[in-house]
Amino acid sequence: MTEAEWLACADLSPMFKTVWRTMSERKLRLFTCGCCRRIWSLLSDQLTRPALELAERYADGAASDSEWDRMYFALISHNDSGSGREFLQVNAAIAATCSYLRRDYHRVIATGLRYACHAVATLNRETGAREKRPDAPERMAREEARQAELLRDVIGNPFRAVTVDPSWLTSTVVALAEGAYRDRAFDRLPILADALQDAGCDNDDVLTHCRHPGEHVRGCWVVDLLTGRK
Description:
This protein is mainly α and about 230 residues long.
């Protein structure tokens, strides 16, 4: 994949194949969680929402291995008897909680994200009921494009690395970046861009990303760059 293809691609599959080997476990997990949060209304309070929240805490070192193992095996066990809506949501959650000790973890993640797209395309967001929709393929494609955007949000441009200048890291910049991460308040990123410019940042990739109107998630490459997360 070329840089131009990466920046324009709306198909998650070739993008994921390009970068999954180089992504940290934290980045990969938060990207997957970000995709699954797009179907939050279709997840259950009993199992899959708690699984997603645990995956995010685990990614940041705030959950134990024993909690993680219990949740993952609960999902696997439930998936053996699930069908319909539950099958889709549980497989999406399995992608977010997949053990990286599995040699095929990247396939589990890719499959789970595909099921998340199926959920968007075939399930009613209000009732969770499966619906026959003539535009299901188009809805699938649109959701895959949103997932591709989230991968760019988390990875940035893998063909052009950005190094943070310590002079950018004023108390205001760091506080804004940490607050956006902690509160999921990514609508504050344009304010962060202004603070970065005040600190002397003239990097177009950083400033443009902060001002981009698209969706941002935990793991956003600019926020991670400014807060020292990897």
